[in-house]
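Late entry, AHG complex.
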Amino acid sequence: MITKTEEPGQIMTIERHILEEQRHHPEATGVLTQLLYDIALAGKVIASRTVRAGLVEILGQTGDINVQGEMVQKLDRFADLTIYRLNDHTGRLAALVSEEDQYPIPIPEKYPCGKYILLYDPIDGSSNIDYNIPVGTIFAVHRRITAEGPGTLEDTLQPGNNLAAAGYILYGSSTMLVYSTGQGVHGFTLDPQVGEFLLSHPNIRIPDKPAYFSANLGYRSRWSEGVARFTDYLLGAEAESPRLSLRYVGSLAADFHRNLLAGGVYYYPVDTKDSKKPQGKLRLAYEAAPLAFLAEQAGGYASDGTRAILEIQPEVLHQRTPLFIGSRPLVEKAEELIRLHG
Ligand code: AHG
Ligand code: MN
Ligand code: MN
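Prediction complete; structure with ligand written out below:
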């Protein structure tokens, strides 16, 4: 007779998975485990809205402009508030950083401060919201540097190499949560009937043979010589060019997710003709760094064209960076061509 514990077909919820990972760290207190679970809960709430977006007055703009100079969409606002409200009172965080807020968001005085900092892009790919195209949430978790009290700017300005955890939630044809605490990358799919994220993609590794490249080729004439040559290489200009297909969603989380599973490279370089954004478009702290952490955990690599994204010490909160991310040999090829041609 087979006993219950030997029976195959274990249902691995995200809560159980995070708990089991925590057991590898005897010193862990369980706070990070609970924080990740709070983020997963926020993902479920946001997912429930995105699938009804066309029906529940959540499409369109709020009329406000955010710190980045971008129009704030209603779904940006909803997701931003959801993440904040599920995390402000738990005693696990010392501060939050949102794409939508100029300064670090303090924990209200009536609640205790904790030891982590949560940085997040509530909705990544906002320009796609009104067209029923997948969007995501990207998050990064740092341990605070200061010892106690409210979190400071110093706590929020840390290089990706210090990350305690990172991940994203993708609101696509199904909702997925992909995360890492530095022990590989694991993907979960939301079972809407059960209301739980269940492990569907354990231990994700970027395949050796890449399949796709992703960039906004509409800007090609605005890129540097090195990036233009990299693009030619991807398009098959050289004998040893890989045979890649082009896919560009315009939601970084979605483009990254495809290339993580299928192999490939995403890049968003400097626009040489836009002096207002000399460092490209994407934000280091809550877009590039967390995804770089996942890429490296899956055997890939991320660079700003000259150095590893994870090594960059941010100087300001909403610092932008050029980004090349995905299969390691492709990202290194970009670095090589940028080194040679600028
Ligand atoms: P966000 O919606 O958080 O502002 O981020 C949008 C980013 C990223 O998701 C995407 O890859 C890129 O902007 C698309 O920009 P382009 O429309 O310039 O290609
Ligand atoms: Mn974004
Ligand atoms: Mn955003």
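The CA atoms of residues 81 and 122 lie 9 Å apart. Will revisit in the morning.
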